[in-house]
Amino acid sequence: MRGRILAVLLVAFTSTIGESGPERVFVGARVCARCHHETDRDQFSRWYRSPHASAWTDLALPEAAEIARLSGIDEDPFESPICLGCHATAADTEPWQRDPTFAIEDGVQCELCHGPGSVHVADAIAAGAATAATNGLEWPGPRLCMVCHKPKGSHTSVLDVQPFEIEDAMARIAHPGRGGPSPESVVNEEGAAPPHTVTEAGCTTCHDQPSFGMRVDPRSAIPTAALRQADVASAPLYKTPFNLVVSRDGRRLFAVCEASDSVVVVETATRTMVAEIAVGNLPHGICLSPDGHTAYVSNRGDDTVSIIDLSAMVEMETIAIGDEPHGVVTDVEGRTLYVANAGSSDVSVVDLESRREIKRLSAARGAWGVSLSPDGNQVYVTANLSHFVPFRTPSRSEVTVIDTARQVVDNRVMIPEANLVQGVDVAPSGDFALVTLIRTKNLVPMTRVLQGWVMTNGIGILWRDGRVDQLLLDEPDNSFADPTDVVITPDGRFAFVSGGGVDEVAVVDLDRMRAVLEAADENERRDLLPNHFGVTTEFVERRIPVGRNPRGLAVSPDGRTVYVAEALDDAVAVIDVARREKVATIDLGGPEDITQTRKGERIFHSAEVTYGRQFSCHSCHPDGGIDAITYDIEPDGIGVNPVDNRTLRGILDTAPFKWTGKNPTLSRQCGPRLAVFFTRLDPFTPDQVVALESYIRTIPRNPNRYRGVGSELTPAQRRGKSVFERSFTNGGAPIPVEKRCSTCHPAPYFTNREQVFVGVGSELDTHDVFDVPHLNNIYESAPYLHDGRADTLEEIWTRFNPKDEHGVTNDMTKDQLNDLIEYLKTL
Fold first, then answer.
1. What does pTM read for this prediction?
2. Where on the phi/psi map is residue 245: left (φ > 0), alpha (ψ -120 to 50), or beta?
3. Other C-beta atoms lying within 10 Å of the C-beta of residue 12
4. To which H or E segment does residue 599 belong?
5. How far apart are CA 516 and CA 513, in angstroms?
6. What pLDDT digit, counting tens, does each position of 314-329 carry?
7. Is the bond preceding residue 176 a cis peptide, omega within 30 degrees?
8. Coil, strand, or helix at residue 109?
9. Cis link prior to 783 (omega < 30° from 0)?
């Protein structure tokens, strides 16, 4: 048997020899044991009885599911690259890189530390360790261990984790020796048969026999250990309504609920739920077909649109579209669906007869909301993120206008000094469109929070003739944080704007708004009014208090009622337009129990913690992501050390935080320093900090759109992986360990969680050592570097690595760089 395995390995070795050397594949611990197990040396048995061997099976425990939840992992731990990265060997490889003798179920095994063993086994079986090392055998140090064994917040929250002492750990797993002949059976020190292995490969050796009548799945067969926390399976399932739409006859209201992956149907006459329809993951936008028979729902968690039969109240099918879809709208005839894709920054054009995507239209970064003009000729598409702008210059956002007859982009309307442009509605006359926006002053230091100048909140008016005006909804010391959606009444008299951070809806008198603009000259309209707190009360009739975190709005066809999604109350507010006040609340059936995580979610989305209610955590981290803006935070001086905003999606186990790496925990990051340098009010109470951290740690990471779970790499991505893992330059010179990509960016988070010098400091920086960022879904978080100077991944190395201090890259060809970028996008 041993000879046959070696023969196969030798064939594989000789068939892959070329200019680039042999391809190394993983052969598995059982192959290693054929030379590396003897009673007196105990190399294989030392691993075999260790927790490393049971690491894969540990993912079956209920603790693993809770740890995954706290890590923002919205998938089975057995399928998560993050979980498998520390609980299995070769989890990030493709099938061709694993020999038939290899079993991932054997957990953390020999080749995780010593590298793929095919070349070592085939070429050095009789030559000893010195020769074997030249053929790919690796000898890692403590640094590799610490990639997975540094404390992780998700694990310490669930398990009774003891301090990890690397010296003691290295001594416990020490297994000196050089290999040699092996006995036919594996034995332990006492000569007895080995204990039952805890891997699937071991279990099924006996338990997969026909006499047992069934296969044993370790995911269900492992005894349950006690949890320190309450049973997570019984956690309440909230609704979190986000967007709304009313049927054309006004009799039914449809609420898209992100947390429950459903659409709740409400009878408007009785204000009661009549149905709940399951849809895809994290549904966001909704629209109805012109005949009212069908609803279309975007699912930003799985990049699809659900098609709902409203007579049967069921999802009929889904359509695959762009990445992270948000707003949806059909054309007048109901033949075409337009879907704004925030992740891929484009618009999917879907033919509804064939129910397939027929083209993509380029939009602005973070395409978000959509609205059809009254004549049906145009679709307006807002964008969450600013265009890329020169370093240390104001934001500039785009509203994309699509010609529905030709299905092409007809115009790109620019809004200066604005970002987070989300809600949009077109006036019944078609003369203008209103959009919600935030004016983030990224050139102003955070000290100006006390003057109300760091973030201001308002609306944009996009006139038919191309003019763009901006007006604030803020008042002195009473801001209107996080304007999210806007609707205009059918008679064109009023606009209603939801303030997600202040739990209010602003009522804008559109005639008075026109009067304010017409009374100003050109300079005032361009420079003064967009920043003027003093005119808001001239056109904002009132602010209507509503429930927590108002998001989407919908107006009834008769114009008498406006409905408001109270996202964090699992309810819909009913506003009487004539009285301009809230008259009722529609309960969507969410749980009464408010968990610590839900409390934290409410804190995250509330501006009550900020001086003057200027902004919330969500203002900088929409959907837990980024606003793509560089800030001047003054703890280390005003005007120096600008820092790029970083995502909160799935970050708990990537501590420390901040670009300096000074904050070891999320609670430290969100504690008193937040009050001192950001909110300028009293800090959170200890209970609030715990709740806020509880929520942030559960913000999920989006599915990677460049590589699905379990899918193979493309040829370009595979070549890029080789570049990422390379240890020699194109000229054959060895690359120092500290300058290899994989040294600072090891799987599964692709960060070693250390602070390093990579030569990217600028004249504005007072230090040049920065925290190593994780690379998961790196394509989502442009711009790059600590200060956001690099607009693209390519620029990191083409513009900002002239001395090969941020990895050795100057020898690379353009094709190699392109391949490297393609691979990085898959992480």
1. 0.87
2. beta
3. 18
4. helix 596-604
5. 5
6. 999 999 999 999 999 9
7. no
8. coil
9. yes
